[in-house]
Write a structure and sequence with these properties.
- By secondary structure, the protein is an all-alpha fold.
- It has one domain (4-99): Orthogonal Bundle (DNA polymerase, domain 1), CATH 1.10.150.110.
- It has helices at 4-24, 30-42, 48-53, 65-77, 81-99.
- The longest helix is centred in the first third of the chain and has 21 residues, at 4-24.
- The radius of gyration is 15 Å and the shape is elongated.
- It starts with a helix and ends with a helix.
């Protein structure tokens, strides 16, 4: 089970992975946004759940509406759908490129 400040570390790891997968898929703008948000969350002294409960996620540097929704999803479900989708896309992309030649 993921506990309070551990959730900050978990979402940081998720956001770095999202950024890496977006890079692999050739996205030029979103990787930086996810890395910036991850960097800000990494150094937070407050728990994300506390911040979310106050409706203040977007006050965290680098956290926009879309990233705030990802955080909310993680806090509710323990998962981020975008990450699951990207893992699948990268897997399909990798297989396609592997067998294309």
């Amino acid at each position: 089970m993921v506990t309070t400040l551990t959730k900050n570390k978990a979402i940081t790891k998720i956001f770095y992975e999202i950024a890496d997968l977006l890079d692999l898929l050739g996205d030029v703008s979103r990787p930086r946004a996810y890395r910036d948000a991850a960097s800000s969350i990494e150094v937070l002294s407050k728990d994300l759940e506390e911040i979310a409960a106050k409706g203040d996620l977007e006050t965290i540097p680098g956290v926009d509406k879309a990233i705030a929704r990802d955080i909310q999803e993680f806090l509710k479900t323990g998962k981020v759908g975008l990450l699951l989708d990207l893992r699948e896309q990268v897997d399909m992309h990798t297989r396609y490129n592997l067998y294309k030649s």
